[in-house]
Amino acid sequence: MAQEFIPILGFTNVWRYETSGTNLGTEWRQADYDDSAWPLGPGLLQNAETTEYPAPFNTELSVAQGIITCYFRTRFVLPESVNTAPPHAVKLFTTNLVDDGCVMYLNGATVGRIRVPNSPTYLTTASLPPASEGQLDVLELDASNLRMGENVVAVEVHQFSATGGDLVWGSHWVAEIASPLSIVGEPVGVTNLVGTPATLSVEVSGGPAVYQWHKNGIKIAGAVNADLDLPAVSTNSGDYIAIITNSLGAVTSTVARVWFAPDRTGPIPLRAIVSRSNLVDVVFNDFVLGTSVDATKFRLTRLRNGASIPLDSAFSSAHLVRIRLNPSEDWVYWDDYSIALTGIQDNEGNTMAPDSIVPVAWHTTNVIGTLNPWRYHNSALFDPGVYDIQWYGTNYKTTSHWGAGAGVFYRFPVPVEVCFGSLDTEVRFQPQPMLFRETFVLPTNITTLGTLTVNFVIDDGAVFYFNGQEILQYNVPPGPITAQTRSFAGVGLPACVTRSITVSNFFPGTNWLAAAVVGSPGSDSDVCFGMNMEVAYEILPSLPAQLPPTLTLSPAGPGLLAASWTGGGYALESAENLDSGTLYPWGPWTEVPNMANPYVFTSTNEPWRFLRLRKK
């Protein structure tokens, strides 16, 4: 069981307040001070504040110009679960909405301050205003000042300037009760090639949990999370443990051994795409050695007739090689091409599989308009379980609770103009999130990579999903959408937003887009949602089928033996024996150095070995 959080005070708790500007000294902080003559009201309490806050304003104060300090007091009874917990297991946290600063007292003792210097008087101004209106200021308080039964909280709120008129106060308190720790998921050792990062993870029950990772018995600075990400360099090989602590004790994981083996595999071309009218970009899985790149290493072929396209130059940058071609009559936009590559090396000097062939993709775009049809769900009263299932998934089937319409969807007390489109479908209001789904169709010969440029109008927040994966949140707290999800804040008039999102989960054919539209935590009942979208994707030609390769060994001169093979994109690998206990790093096979087809062995100087071909 994780740690337990016990609510103590909420933002809407009732406070007594004194705003006359009188110097109350220090007696007012004490638990036995008589505040019965002070007026009272629920939070948030405010004076002359026009900015919308994350919690509602429930009490309007009257604070005259020039008054710097106002006083607030409230009481709570300590919950039994906090009272009976071991003292060292209890922590006390407060989240505050304050304009401009404050000092907090618990049962007469100072327990926290926000933007107010030490030893303030009623004429002391706050040292700074909040960085932004409505920001949440979180503090850990001294829990040793809690006592059984009734507790008294006293707060003095200070203005940054005597001429400042706005004031806000509200506070949310919670007690955290720790529970004993135990490890339920040990970190697992891993062997990766240099260049492939590794992640170690440890899972615990109980909490709170403070993590610290160690390598070879030495604490790793900054390694304080349940997951440890290790860059793929040989110096990160070693033995790792995690030590997890809280106020009740500590637990230590088993040892996880990590080895980053030297990279002995050549680079692999992942994709090729026309980036400009006479440029083709080839992307590799590894950094490319620049000195191994020139135009003679590439062959660009028109699949329609087998014609070769003249190439002018080639240069590399990190994982990318850019090829400049000399356009000819056989270079025709949107036609089908392939590119063959050989002799390219990575920064470790490993050579790629000879004659690897990659289809050449073209960028293209589709526009999904504002008036595209959507299915929408605003029947939470009759179908509350919809939030408990993957309504945004590709396999979800809409039910009779889903309506149909086209954007812009709206419900306003008075209709207003929006930034694009027209108010097309009026919907009824519900406080729970309103759900939307639509599909669009792409060609079947596409890659999985692309970009969605989304333009949307929204009141108040939204979460978007593409093919079952969340891709964007706007004005909504992180976490899954539930019936209780609300936006961070209301937006007033509908907001117009544009976002560009890179995705890697395009489907050939039908694709699914979904959105949850979330209302504000306030009492407004307006709804607005509409969007259009530009979909940028890559068209990919099909390559001709290849016959299975044939590996042939033949003499190549005195003391020389040549290995040659048919088919492109096959790496030649060798092994001195096939004993599974001989591992590099997962088996006995390694790619031959300086790979070429044919590949020549010096038979008099090299040991007996086995050979095989592996498709890259």
Give a structural overview.
With 616 residues, the chain is mostly beta strands. The protein folds into five domains: 4-177, Galactose-binding domain-like (Jelly Rolls); 182-261, Immunoglobulins (Immunoglobulin-like, Sandwich); 269-366, Sandwich (Immunoglobulin-like); 369-539, Sandwich (Jelly Rolls), CATH 2.60.120; 551-615, no CATH class. 1% of the residues lie in helices and 47% in strands. It has one helix and 47 strands. The strands form nine sheets. Strands 23, 24, 25, 26, 27, 28, 29, 30, 33, 34, 36, 39 and 41 form a 13-stranded mixed sheet that branches. Strands 1, 4, 5, 7, 10 and 12 form a six-stranded mixed sheet that branches. It has a six-stranded antiparallel sheet with strand order 3-2-6-11-8-9, with no helix packed on it. Strand 17 and strand 18 (218-219) form a beta hairpin. The relative contact order is 0.09. The model has no long low-confidence stretch (mean pLDDT 91).
Question: How do the strands and helices of this protein lay out in sequence?
Answer:
Layout: E1 4-9, E2 14-18, E3 40-42, E4 45-47, E5 59-60, E6 69-77, H1 80-83, E7 90-99, E8 101-106, E9 109-114, E10 137-141, E11 150-158, E12 167-177, E13 179-185, E14 190-193, E15 198-201, E16 203-207, E17 210-215, E18 218-219, E19 227-230, E20 238-246, E21 249-252, E22 256-261, E23 269-276, E24 279-284, E25 298-302, E26 308-309, E27 311-317, E28 320-325, E29 337-341, E30 356-368, E31 373-377, E32 402-406, E33 409-411, E34 425-426, E35 434-442, E36 446-459, E37 461-466, E38 469-474, E39 495-503, E40 509-518, E41 527-539, E42 551-555, E43 560-565, E44 570-575, E45 590-591, E46 599-602, E47 610-615
Parallel strand pairs: 4-5, 14-22, 23-30, 33-34
Antiparallel strand pairs: 1-12, 2-3, 2-6, 4-12, 6-11, 7-10, 7-12, 8-9, 8-11, 13-16, 15-19, 17-18, 17-20, 20-21, 20-22, 23-24, 24-28, 25-26, 25-29, 27-28, 29-30, 30-41, 31-32, 31-35, 33-41, 35-40, 36-39, 36-41, 37-38, 37-40, 42-43, 43-46, 44-45, 44-47
